[in-house]
Amino acid sequence: MGPNTVEALRGISFKVMPGEFISIMGPSGCGKSTLLNLLGCLDRPSSGHYFLGGDDVSRMEDDLLSMVRGARLGFIFQSYNLIQQLSVVENIEVPLYYRDEPEEKSRARAIKLAHLVGLGDRIDHKPFELSGGQQQRVAIARALVNDPLVILADEPTGNLDSKSGREILEVFKDLHHQGKTLILVTHDSNVAQLADRAIRLKDGNIESDVRK
Which of 5, 51, 153, 171 could form a disulfide with 184 if both were Cys (CB 3.0 to 4.6 A apart)? Predict the structure, then answer.
């Protein structure tokens, strides 16, 4: 708060098509986190518009925006953000608690996703009983549980060793082949190489936007 305005992003404009796998890269302070927060409906743009699934979410009331965020977006964080007191399957179910889904249906979907990410034999384990790579798999399954339009990931391999990182990248490759729309903020060139489109930011602008 003060007399000076800081422009984190400066007139950025781009379109994401269904099924695209996009990496967003750039040096620290270039606007990556701000852009991800805007795409995730966690922040609002001070000007301009953001259309998600055909709706302009940049001017929505908070309650409606929260509903849209929960229904259309899946989040994967570097630090996993799992609830330590809950089991694997319960952590995956968390987004469904806010949709009044029948318990039996929610549990069946969570178990299916646990198997999808290779944790079918760990559904009753707590996060502290899992490796970092396994915890990130739980986070991926949780991001998928609402069948979102877009999956947003912030440095998803940043806290993992090289072996676990490669395993998580294979999961992302599988999701892409299934037609999921993925947007990943990353410093990891291996992650960026998986994407079929690379957006590089510099000083709040798009420096390059390259499709393979």
Answer: 153
What b/e string do you get for 171-209 counting C-beta neighbours within 10 Å, with b at 16 or more? bbeebbeeebbbbbbbebeebbebbebbbbbeebebeee
Give CB contacts under 8 A, 24+ apart, made by 133-136.
133/160, 133/161, 133/163, 133/164, 133/165, 133/167, 133/168, 135/80, 135/82, 136/76, 136/80, 136/160, 136/164, 136/168
Residue 6: Cβ within 10 Å count: 6
Q: What is the pLDDT of residues 8-59, one digit of tens each?
A: 788 889 999 999 999 999 888 888 888 998 999 988 888 889 999 889 999 8
The residues facing 52 across adjacent strands are 55
The two beta strands, 182-185 and 197-202, are unpaired
Confidence of residue 179 (pLDDT cuts 50, 70, 90): very high
* CA 68 distance to own-chain centroid: 15
* pTM for the predicted model, two decimal places: 0.90
Q: Which domains does the chain have, with CATH numbers?
A: 21-211 (3.40.50.300)
Answer yes or no: are the C-beta atoms of 21 and 178 closer than 8 Å: no
Q: Is 56 exposed, middle or buried (0-12, 13-18, 19+ CB in 10 A)?
A: exposed
Cα(155)–Cα(97) distance, rounded to whole angstroms?
Answer: 26
